[in-house]
Amino acid sequence: MSIMDHNGGSVIAMAGKDCVAIASDLRLGAGAQTIAMNFEKVFPVTDRLYMGLPGLATDVITLREKFRYLTNMFHIKESRPLQPSTFAHLLSSTLYERRFGPYFCEPVLAGLELTPSGTYQPYIAGTDLIGCLNFAKDFIVAGTASDKLFGVAEGLWEPDLGPEDLFETISQTLLNSVDRDAYSGWGAIVHVITADKVVTRTLKGRMD
User: Fold this and answer.
1) What is the third-level CATH fold of 3-203?
2) By three-state DSSP, how is residue 120 classified?
3) Mean per-residue pLDDT, 51-68
């Protein structure tokens, strides 16, 4: 078993029309043994940017605190909002610094980027464990169920989904995918980000 799969867990981010969504399952395991069913892997960075951290649980907690510190330092020094594209490069360089002894996480970002015209456009990105950035216009997946997530998302995702349709699409994609993965599941949490609010919903899943 890969160390990336030891604790299990999966994350997916999807882009819609003027909105984005990011979701993860809630299982924390040690191999095939389930330890907890309330281990969140998606964390807020700013009001319009969330970060998902699938991978080794200890590194998830370490990176969460590290990026909380770096984000706060950016706000203190720059006195301006942290844009998703700026944070993506901060994330990439931070992970690349540890390339010879990497953190065992593959982060996923979902947020709204402020354009020069004053509007917000969806921004989703992912990296591998040494910080190589990957951008997409539709969806980004990571974690132990990533193969299943790719297949289901390809069939369900459509361009220009509104917030409610995007929520339904990402929820069905995640729940149907983790049902086919022994290391993910036990419920899910979904965040839908729009220009004026973030709606968070917790979903029930199969408990076996």
Assistant:
1) Glutamine Phosphoribosylpyrophosphate, subunit 1, domain 1 (3.60.20)
2) strand
3) 95
